[in-house]
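Suppose you are handed a protein chain with no further information: no name, no annotation, nothing but its sequence. What can you learn? This example shows the usual starting point.
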Amino acid sequence: MHYPDSKDRSAELLRQAIPMMAQHPAPLHPITYAVWYDYLAGRNPGLKAEMDQVVARQVPMSDTLVYTLYRRHILESAAETAQKVSDGLRAVIDEVGTTATLTGERVSEFTASLQEKSGRMASLGMPADLGIELDALLTDSRDTGASLATLMQRLQASTAELAKLRVELDQAKVEATLDSLTGVSNRRGFDEAMAALLREHPGGEAGPSVVLIDLDHFKQINDKYGHVFGDTVLKSIAMAIRSCVKGRDLVARYGGEEFVVLLPATSLSGAMALAEQIRTTISGARIRRGNSSESIGAITVSLGVSSWKPGEPMETLIDRADKALYRSKSEGRNRVSAGE
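A reasonable first move is to predict its three-dimensional structure. Written in structure tokens, the prediction is:
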């Protein structure tokens, strides 16, 4: 995102933002600052309107609320712009493809017509001067046909390149919702899937439910064994979680060492059973260091589970799972708790 503010203006916004951020429980990370910066800059009407209500009602800004505001008013705005560009390019690709096809058909018809008329004219008795003019006209027409045929070939080649580009655009869209380290969905992919699921949720169907998963003492692993090995642990945890899910279930890296599982049409009891399966699968596994047989011992996770209540926003569902997760942490870790 481009910010047009001068250095002095940016410094002034920073000076205003810091004391305001300090009054709220959300961590002072870049996303928190981005939300307050855009709010104070006043260029984002939607964000300003919602933040004005938060400030006026003195609502404590949790990390969940910060991420919600960021996704809704900053991230999605950028994503919508990119999607418009992608859709515009798709339209061009489709139009060129259609034009190429029509041009090819017309070139074929025109060439066939020329050949037929040429044969008829040759069989007619005509004055010499007229015959010469007709021959010249036919030659020009054949040259035009040849030029159109060449144009058709170029259009076909261009269409093939554009079609290839379209495939690459589709692939880029998929990759934009994947976590590059673990291969599961990223937070954006999860948010989009959850939003779509709630929009299309049929009445009377159980769920959806979510399972939030956080590695216990992950900082100690990074400090003791290094971040490279820490990445190996994250990839192994993602694989373990994926081994427990099936069908439409979605696994996503929610941030840092935290993962989330989205369970469509799954009740709270079903989600709790899956969470317990994930917990025991991970705690029972052993991860080796490099090519050696040395194991770092058991790795455990704490989990929070919640099931959607009709009419509640996605943020409330996640917040209940998040509170359950922290209850698991406070009660000794390596356990599953249900959100109220």
